[in-house]
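Practice problem: predict the structure.
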Amino acid sequence: MKTLKEMQAEVLSVNTNNGWFESDRTVGDDVALLHSEVSEMFEAFRDGGLADQTGGRFQMDEYGEEFETTPKPEGFGSEVADVLIRLLDTCERRGIDLDFEYDRKITYNSDQIFLRDFVWPLIEKDVLIHDLCHHRLRQVAVSFPSKFGDDRFVGEVFDAQDRPRSFDADMRINFQEP
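Answer:
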């Protein structure tokens, strides 16, 4: 099986040979292109579910003769592959070692289960958490002591005009216990 680093090199080779790697793009361009591939993946799902939508292997030439061809892969799985290819291209352009980053992230994520299941029960009664949402769920959590007003909170996200995103405030205000 190929490593992610080998796949990055393969994508670079194909893109270079097709003339798709010559001009540099901004990081914003890369993210937008990734987003467009994810949108195409969702569109493929809406159109055909998870099924392969690739057409037949035979086509007709201008004389009515049938010939075998390699059809363009279509459908959800093909679009997932496009997302991966675009991600590998972005990583190659930006010097990201995706093998390393994947291992680092999956190790961190795996550790979170250990922290939740083993460490948290040991310290749960000995910590004080300032949290506007979770203080309703756990006895140890309390509201943050500073007054921000009804729509402000610690850690809120601001938009490009330095205004708090209303979505985050609405989510906090409308939070319902499970």
